[in-house]
Write a structure and sequence with these properties.
The chain has 28 helices and 22 strands. By secondary structure, it is an alpha/beta fold. The protein binds phosphoenolpyruvate (PEP) and magnesium ion. Magnesium ion binds next to helix 22. Phosphoenolpyruvate (PEP) binds next to strand 16 and helix 22.
């Protein structure tokens, strides 16, 4: 059964649309299981009925007409039980229902498997046979496997609106324009899509147009020539190693590139106005699709040759494309499959209105940067047809995590109104810049900022923050093409220290690894978040660590507002080794090289569960502690902070996290050590209330959130927050904590600060 399964998966992947997927499945499953019938029933989310949506073996006219609720028929039985039903003699079963329009009285045995996605039964896959027999275990396993495959495809079709075209064609009002993602930085962004693609990925090439047809043709010609040269020289190199027959493959490649083959089709598309890259990828993808569907094994294998050739030519095209061709409109919505800091660095900051990434989640670094810069951001938009959006009108709703493609003028007006209200709130908040950050009872809560990019400086200074609680040094490292030298680093750090002086600036040593790979220092691991990251990398490369600490200390000469923070600490040995290296640098600089520098305070991040339980031992060795709730949440709950599939399980209000936070603050307090929080929870106004209630007196956050947090804290007394936090950390689950917190903060003046303003149509 493995071969038919492999073929089905291959064909489904190559299918042009959802309807074709359904047809492939019923056709292939019927053939592979040699049954008389195979059908798919899909759930109509409105009527909650399962609709016959594709069949081989029932009358084709019955598609779309036969429907069942979970109370009706054997299909309903499979759906309600959410498990397979295998019957030798279906007609004698009490749930058997007869539908004359299907002509199904010819069948006797029945096997139905539910199609389940994220615990919901989206459909039922059924096979039936005339002959009376019980399907065996391997057949049942086969059908369940195909159903599991189908589940993901149906969920995708539901998100893109393709499903509704099948289950309720009369309700379809054209292609769906709203795509869900994960709300990652609040705000509304309205503008035009600029799609950023990953190199040499055929499926990542945006459909882009160009006015310069001769230029595009010339680029294509040059890329073809270069590829032909590559292929010829590869053939030469392999003479004597490969057989004459195997070498012939290279001639096939060369022929494919000729004008009467792929080359000709591409030229035709370029002449229609597509860029060379876009035309090439469209043609190649279509050919891959055609080959993958062929019956002959030999021809199917050719699909991978076309794919390989496609990548080679694309690589040359991407190398010859002049970077200045890239035009960023005044209102750019930056969209990409896996956006990262370097993509952002290329766009003039004042032109970015929104950020959308297909991969990643609320706590990915792209999201954190989006929040730091105050740009509405949606991550994890896995269903977005992103490669096709170039130049389209887009609304990014960073509050709800929605992306609206080509909205109607009415919807756009509604969002523009929400945007306007947000600007009013932002202006109101800005006016509170100089108010002290104290609670209603007068207790001071230090509000600091997290920084990293140069562009966030203006926003940070505008907030009147009391210091920098986290300067992520890896961000300037991302923006280079190699490790910056000690002197280059010194200048970058000096800028930061000077801008915020005399306020303290907490510089974290390089925290790469996990989801933060430097382009010039790739780390490839099965499980990167449990791998070589943060302090583990820099202790293994003391030359990197020493250069960085030297640069930081030299930068602080005469300013002396530097604090050094160590990331990803999971053992005391790591702290001791790092402290020894820091002490060595200090001695070298002050004793041997004559710098006049005060010894900076050194702290560690508490972001790994092991560190939580060693808070006391850690606190004894350092000057301060800073809790990284982003990683602490992911490690405590075993939920990847970047994975949209488990994003709903990543919960900053989880009682386990609240208990850990309480433990840390108590332990640090017992030793009189300063402890702050620099994870994203601190910048969430409701999270800040909880943290203040748990005993934290310093919170560091994205500048975009600071004034909002201050305004909320100013309206509550410490006693209120303490009682609330004590009560909530005893609740059994995160949903109850959030709910109760919202209830408790439902009061005039506070509510407006917790939720963004909503206009008519904002949730469209
Ligand atoms: C954290 O983990 O909470 C943190 C502040 O560090 P980062 O988000 O950079 O991993
Ligand atoms: Mg961290």
């Amino acid at each position: 059964m493995l071969e038919p399964l492999r073929r089905i998966v291959q064909e489904v992947n190559a299918a042009p649309d959802f309807r074709a997927v359904l047809e492939i499945i019923v056709e292939r499953v019927k053939a592979a299981m040699s049954t008389g019938m195979c059908s798919i029933y899909l759930l109509d989310p409105v009527s909650k009925r399962y609709i016959l949506s594709a069949t081989r073996g029932l009358l084709p006219e019955s598609v779309g007409k036969v429907t069942m609720s979970t109370e009706e028929g054997l299909v309903g039985l499979v759906a309600s039980r959410a498990e397979p039903v295998n019957l030798e003699h279906a007609e004698t079963h009490p749930r058997f229902a007869y539908f004359p329009e299907t002509g199904e009285e010819r069948f006797s045995s029945f096997l139905g498997a539910p199609i389940i996605h994220q615990r919901e039964v989206l459909g039922v896959l059924v096979v039936q046979q005339q002959e009376r027999r019980r399907f065996d275990e391997s057949e049942e396993a086969f059908l369940i496997t195909v159903s599991a495959q189908l589940a993901g495809v149906i969920a995708h079709a539901e998100a893109t609106g393709e499903l509704v075209r099948i289950t309720a064609p009369e309700a379809d009002t054209g292609p769906s324009a709203v795509y869900p993602g994960i709300a990652s930085a609040p705000g509304i962004g309205i503008g035009h899509a600029v799609v950023v693609s990953s190199p040499a990925d055929l499926y990542a090439v945006p459909k882009r147009r160009s006015d310069d047809i001769p230029g595009e043709l010339e680029q294509f010609r040059r890329a073809l020539e270069k590829t032909q040269q590559d292929v010829r020289s590869a053939k030469n190199d392999l003479k004597g190693i490969l057989s004459a027959e195997e070498l012939e493959m290279f001639d096939v490649y060369l022929r494919m590139l000729e004008d009467h083959s792929l080359g000709g089709e591409v030229i035709a598309l370029i002449n229609q106005g597509f860029t060379a890259q876009s035309a090439w990828s469209q043609v190649v993808i279509e050919h891959i699709r055609t080959f993958s569907r062929m019956d002959s094994e030999y021809l199917r294998e050719r699909a991978s040759d076309v794919r390989d050739l496609g990548r080679r030519v694309l690589e040359h095209l991407q190398q010859t494309t002049r970077p200045e061709q890239r035009v960023y409109p005044q209102n750019t919505i930056l969209i990409g499959e896996d956006l990262a800091a370097p993509h952002l660095a290329e766009v003039p900051f004042e032109r970015i209105r929104g950020i959308v990434s297909v991969r990643g989640s609320h706590n990915s670094h792209m999201a954190i940067i989006g929040r730091a810069m105050g740009i509405p951001t949606v991550m994890g938009a896995i269903d977005l047809p992103w490669a096709e959006l170039e130049g389209q009108r887009i609304i990014v709703d960073g509050h709800l995590g929605h992306i609206l493609v080509d909205p109607s003028p009415e919807v756009e007006r509604a969002f523009a109104e929400v945007f306007r209200q947000e600007q009013i709130l932002a202006a109101d908040l800005l006016a509170t810049r100089d108010e002290p950050s104290i609670t209603a009872c007068g207790a001071e809560i230090g509000l600091w900022v997290n920084t990293g990019l140069r562009v966030d400086t203006k926003l940070s200074l505008e907030t009147g923050a009391a210091g920098v609680g986290l300067y992520r040094t890896e961000i300037p490292f991302f923006l280079q093409e190699r490790f910056p030298s000690e002197e280059e680093q010194r200048q970058i750090y000096r800028d930061q220290l000077q801008i915020y002086a005399p306020c303290p600036v907490t510089m974290r040593t390089l925290d790469i690894g996990g989801d933060k790979a430097l382009p010039y220092f790739p780390i490839s691991e099965e499980n990167p978040f449990l791998g070589w990251r943060g302090i583990r990398v820099t202790l293994d490369h003391p030359e990197i660590f020493l250069a960085q600490v030297r640069a930081m200390m030299r930068a602080s000469e005469d300013i002396d507002n530097l604090r050094i923070l160590l990331p990803m600490i999971s053992s005391i040995e790591e702290v001791d080794s790092a402290l020894a290296l820091i002490a060595r640098v200090y001695t070298e600089l002050t004793v041997e090289e004559g710098y006049r520098i005060e010894m900076p305070k050194v702290g560690v991040m508490i972001e790994v569960p092991a560190a939580v339980y060693q808070t006391r031992d850690l606190a004894q060795r350092v000057d301060f502690l800073s809790v990284g709730t982003n990683d602490l949440t992911q490690y405590l709950l075993a939920v990847d902070r970047n994975n949209p599939r488990v994003a709903a399980l990543y919960h900053g209000y989880h009682p386990a996290l609240l208990k850990a936070l309480r433990h840390i603050v108590a332990e640090a307090g017992a030793l009189g050590r300063e402890v702050s929080v620099c994870g994203e929870l601190a910048g969430d106004p409701m999270g800040a209330v909880l943290l203040a209630g748990l005993g934290y007196r310093t919170l560091s956050m994205s500048a975009a959130n600071l004034l909002r947090v201050k305004a909320v804290l100013r309206q509550l007394t410490l006693a209120e927050m303490t009682t609330l936090a004590a009560r909530l950390s005893e609740l059994p689950d995160a949903t109850s904590v959030k709910h109760e917190l919202q209830q408790a903060l439902q009061r005039p003046g506070v509510e407006r600060l917790l939720h963004a303003p909503r206009g008519r149509g904002a949730a469209a």
